[in-house]
Every structure is written in C-alpha cells, then in structure tokens.
Amino acid sequence: MPAKSDNWIIKMSQEKGMIEPFEASQIKKGNISYGVSSYGYDLRLFDEYRVPERTPQDLTIDPKNLDTSVYKNVKTAVLEIEPGQTVLGRSLEYFRIPRDIIVLCFGKSTYARCGLLVNITPLEPEWEGFITIAISNISSSKVRAYSMEGISQAVFIESDETCAVSYADKGGKYQAQKAITFAKI
Fold it and tell me: Going by DSSP bridges, is the β-strand pair 116-119/48-52 parallel, antiparallel, or unpaired?
C-alpha cells in the first residue's frame, strides 16, 4: 500500500479533478505552506468557521443530539482560537477520492508547535466534498489560524485491492458536503 507521489497527485488533479482548486507547486513565501509536496497535498483552510459561543462549564456536547445553536458563524481572514476551544472549519479545496485510495490527513507542524491540533477523519474511497476540520487549541494562550493558507497535509494511500463497498456505494452521510458539517447519526 504505497503512498502516492507528487506526480500522481498532479496528474489526478489536473486530469480527473481530484482536488479543486488545485495548486501544482508548494507555495511558501509569507504563507503557511500549501499545495503539492513530495508525497502529499497541503490543503488550505477556508475563511468560514463555526465557533462555540461562551457557554457554561457544565454544558455537555452530545454527538448524538448536537445543539448547533451554541455555534456562531464567523467569516474572517484570521481567527483567534481561545485556550481549550475547538472550532470547526473547512477546506478551501473540494476532494474526489478514487475508489482504490484512502487519504489520511495530518496537522501542519507550524500549528502543532503553537498548540493547535487538527483532526480530520480518513477520506474514504469514493468520498467527495469539502473537508470539515476540527481545530483545537490545547495551549494556554490564544492561537491564530490563517484562512486561505495551509492547515493539514493529505497523504494518498493506494490499496493493493479495490474495496467491495466504497463510501459512495453505502451512501455515506457526509458524501458531497458543501459546507462545514456538524456531527450526524
């Protein structure tokens, strides 16, 4: 199960629309890097967020019965994330994953070194959509997140056997999501 190279990522994105919009080189100057790397793609953070309002400490967030009214919509170029806070964002890029590929995403080291952790679940075979990104500040200070710059690296892993049932086949609940998507049951 090899990781796919920059050549494969470029070809699949330019010929098959696997990533849109797509940056065929690594953009670094003055930015948290994004675009193609040797064995991955550094995806960008869009400028829309779902930020929890200040709530009582005893509030329980229940993924089976999520009260989305505690979140406010924020559109900004720079978001200051409070200590201990988790916000939701989304990728600028829209992804279309091939049937024989699974994608694992890892947070950028620039943010990790400042206390921001990025969580993205695996992008399953034949899943498509904008990626909903959970961004958590584990530091004791506010940390800034920059929209339209790199947030996570996606690594494309090819299976040695095509799956029997893809995410599209099973009608996955997050298929073709066009916006930040809250937890669903």
Answer: unpaired
The domain of 80 spans 6-158
What is the CATH classification number for the domain harbouring 103? 2.70.40.10
Q: What percent of the chain has pLDDT over 70?
A: 97
If you search the block for the tokens 């799956």, which residue do you land on?
163
Which residue, among 106, 112, 154, 146, has the nearest Cα to 130 in the 3D structure?
154
Q: Distance (Å, rounded) from C-alpha 126 to C-alpha 98?
A: 5
C-alpha R_g of the chain: 17
- Contact assessment for residue 93 and residue 22, using Cβ atoms and an 8 Å cutoff: yes
pLDDT of the residue at 105:
98
* Residues contacting 171, CB < 8 A, separation 6+: none
> What whole-number distance in Å separates Cα of residue 63 and Cα of residue 173?
14
Task: Name residue 113's amino acid.
Answer: R
